[in-house]
Amino acid sequence: MDNIFIVRQIIEKCHEFTLELHNTFIDYTQAFDSVFRDKIIKCLNKYKIPSKLIKLIARTLQDTKAKTIQKSLK
Questions:
Q1: C-alpha distances in angstroms, 20 versus 13, 25, 62?
Q2: Which residues does 66 contact at the CB level (< 8 Å), separation at least 6?
Q3: Residues of the chain with pLDDT > 90: what percent?
């Protein structure tokens, strides 16, 4: 709940001060490791996403590792 509150506060403050805001939400619980990360950046460039956003997204992908953990329901 705290995360939702913080995001809402950021949105409200940007609206209050008429600041431009870009949000990126990434669900790392999905099978994100099966995506070729360099292809993501190429696609973003292809669709003319602003370079500042591409750099931010690239940083979230840089040096990340995924691990699947199987939990027992016993």
A1: 10, 17, 25
A2: 28, 32, 33
A3: 30
Residue reference for tokens 């199987």:
70
Question: How far, CA to CA in Å, does 47 sit from each of 30, 41, 52, 59?
Answer: 23, 10, 14, 19
Tell me the per-residue pLDDT of 13-48, one tens digit each, with 9 for 90 and over: 999 999 999 887 766 656 555 667 788 889 899 999
Residue labelled with tokens 């939400």: 25
pTM for the predicted model, two decimal places? 0.46
**Between the CA atoms of 4, 10, 16 and 17, what dihedral angle is there, to the nearest 10 degrees?**
-170
Question: Residue for token digits 């590792």?
Answer: 65
The residue with tokens 């099966």 is: 34
> Which residue did the predictor score with more confidence, 60 or 32?
60
